[in-house]
Amino acid sequence: MAISLLQVLVASALVWAILRLRKVGSREPGLPPGPPTIPVLGNLHVFPTEYVYLKFTEWAKVYGEIYSLKIANGTAIVVNSPRLVREIFDKRSANTSDRPPMHFVSVVTDGLNVALARYGPTWRTLRRAMQQFLSREACERHFPIQQAEATQLMYDMLKAPDSYSLHIRRNIGSVILSTVFGIRCPRYANSFIAQFFDGQHQWEQLLEPGAHPPVDIIPLLKYIPAKWQVLAKDVKRKQRALYFTLSNMVAKRMEDKKGNGCFLEELHIQKERFNLTDDMLAYVGGACLEGGIDNSAAFLQTFVCCLTAYPEVQAKAHKELDEVIGNQRLPSYEDLERLPYLQAIIKELERFRPVTPLALPHSLSADEMVEGHLLPKGAMLFMNVYALCHDEEVFDHPEVFNPDRFLNNEHGTKPGVDTSDRRLTDLGFGAGRRICPGNQLSHQFISLAVMNLLWAFSFNHPRDPVTGKEMPVTADVTKDFTTGLVVVPKPFKSDIRPRSQAHASLIRAGYAAARPIFSQFEHELSDADAAFVANY
């Protein structure tokens, strides 16, 4: 039987397609090394769906300071050394400051989330507005409400220590809401903070690498009905309801001449100067909530976990606090300079259990050559914070919580380690042009909270209510901590007690004295919240 020209063309096209498909997923020449690939999928078949940062760190021990992953036709570059972080993220930031195209981000935020927006005019507008009002000087103007909120955190813990995680969330949330929107939340229940966390946890589920189908790499998946589509719509609805409600409350307060100097009031005044739309204003405020509340709350819950798990660290901190502050007055922010061990605890917490162990991915807007390796345009860039903080060649026993390492030198490293390219352990705030503009504000109220809680309380292993036996708290990374974009301890109990009656009396007096400061941010309280404040 004669073979027609059409049959020849079809057969040729089929062969060509098969050959092309065989190349999909393979590592192109010049890329950094990485795990072996298979056709079409690349490394997708071995890409972890949870605890991604631990697998990335495991691969770093095999493939070195920089390696590549193939995800079908896409490429991811994982950076595992401070030297290359500085070279790639900082020195070459003109080409490494983009974000990967993320369908979830487009669907939920319309490209207006400053942390996740693509590098371009919209991002620059949002970033410029945030930087103006999150400077050191601007943050210091809002210090009184931060100090006042620290006193309520102690008071909340004194009254209901078993609810410490809710108290921490309320504290961090109320600091951010007061500073950004001029609205405080005196309780967690039925609050803007509870509303925020409800949507935020769903948002993080969408963003976690490997948790959902790779719709950005295989666009066809966008059109297949799936659970993530319902989730994305729900998150968008919740975010917009919260952010626009809060922004509109600020506008109404200004109309009524009842402003209290919060960040968003200043942005409303200079809206035209920054060329901001109403949507942009709402999302700038929302970005402050997302960047400040969840990460900081996770950090303080990690603090409680580690202090409970390591009583010897707590005892040493108490000794220092007793020598510097004593039990005749409350701590003040100025005391921090005289508390080197407490500062070391904060640094060690950032190193030991970073709350964003992979930070947020960057994307290359142009090809770059780094030490003979091609980093191609469009590739995702991951800064592996966890690997940087747990390198056994750099840190003695990195899986041990030991603040003393930061008393030996400012980077906590082994003697003789080259630290010329090493930042302190604030890598979770990002790098290059994408570094978080709120890091100064965050460090300020985190330090206050840590100092006040350590001064006021002891954190002890709980005991079984039936047997009376001690139930040890540990800080194991997989057993005791969640997976996800933001890592937080799984629910645990800590026996939290005031250190003395003198401490307890000062806490009560401090909370009462803070009422005039609180009242400046309570103009929009609901009737239920106003009744709570009156009775609390």
What distance lies between the first and last C-alpha atoms, to the nearest angstrom?
94 Å
- Relative helix content: 40-55%
Please trace the helix and strand order, writing H or E for each element: HHEEHHHHHHHHHHHHHEEEEHHHEEHHH
Measured on Cα atoms, how large is the radius of gyration? 25 Å
**CATH domain class:** Mainly Alpha
- Mean pLDDT score: 90
- The total count of helices amounts to 21
Overview of the structural elements:
- 51% of the residues lie in helices and 6% in strands.
- The protein has 536 residues and is mainly alpha-helical.
- It has a single domain (28-535), classed as Orthogonal Bundle (Cytochrome p450), CATH 1.10.630.
- The strands form three sheets. A four-stranded mixed beta sheet has the order 1-2-6-3.
- Helix 5 (103-109) runs parallel beside helix 11.
- 43% of the residues are buried.
